[in-house]
Amino acid sequence: MKIITTLICFLSLLQYTNALNLNDIKKMKTNPTTIATTTTTGAPEYVTFTMTTPGAMLTDCPAGCASGWLYYGSKCYKKFDTPATHSQAVTNCQLQGGELVQIESSSENDALRKAFDTNALVDETKETWIGLASTSGSWKWTDGSTASFTNWAQTQPSSGQQCVQMITDALTNSTYQYQRGGWKTYDCSKTSASYICERDANV
């Protein structure tokens, strides 16, 4: 079932390339930002080319995730723009059949940052909870596992603040303004503007 779902997601990406002809590809070679819209009307023209990736991305995948959720790897993700404390965010994600996001790699972190960065300039109350918190001196995820990957922003983690936000937007605080995707600590009892839930994809 996982192979079938992956194939369906891959085929959905091919919809963007199945109308390319030779001239389109030549244009893309000289200008990678050009999006081809023409189709071949004569005899088929065949060409071999190498695809490159812009990096990790979250995508819509109806076969794997419910409407409103984005697919990456074997997980579905959704950002909820609902003010909540860290514990409220944990509970709300559990009610969604998942957990407050647990980020395991730089590629996953980068995909989330790209998907949810609104290019806004905000204060830290507008940042996004993730499922990491300090427990007995160790940084642990909500499932109790110790973090093997972290992406702390400059000067972080800060002592005295035990829950963690991802900087998805540029902060008005100049220290963190250019560190989108970085992590910073914040008071667990204070309200943050959003949180990201994750749950298993339907594979």
From TrEMBL:
InterPro entries registered for this protein in UniProt: C-type_lectin-like, C-type_lectin-like/link_sf, C-type_lectin/snaclec_domain, CTDL_fold
Keywords (A to Z) from UniProt: Signal
Protein name, UniProt field: C-type lectin domain-containing protein
Pfam family membership, one: Lectin_C
Organism: Caenorhabditis briggsae
Residues making up the signal peptide according to the UniProt record: 1-19
C-type lectin domain sequence ranges: 72-190
